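I hope you will forgive my troubling you with a question about protein structure. Could you please explain, in whatever detail you think fit, how the structure tokens follow from the sequence? Thank you for your consideration; the sequence and its tokens are set out here.
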Amino acid sequence: MPDTTLADLAHEVRSKNAGPFWVTMEVFLRDAEGYRIAADESFLNERVIAELYRVEESTVQVFRIPSLNVVKISFPRPVSQGSLRDRDMHAGQHHVPLARLPVGRDDR
């Protein structure tokens, strides 16, 4: 059986522009248990996001919102919105590596 991913714990994992120079991703967890796993700083933190998205760790911002079971993440876009090298004008696909992040190994 495959590993459980962050997307398996969530209603939705999405990304969007936060202006022309930043990306924001949001993870809407199904329940308090999923939030407990996703919000754990040893699991999801600035270092993990920096490695996933190849950005400087010091530029990553992680916001945990327990009353909504939401984790929000922001970091600078790799290229500015609308530039010649921009391949995702609305940052709508940036969430995929985060959604695929394994949360642990299932028993085999």
User: Anything to note?
Assistant: The chain has four helices and six strands.
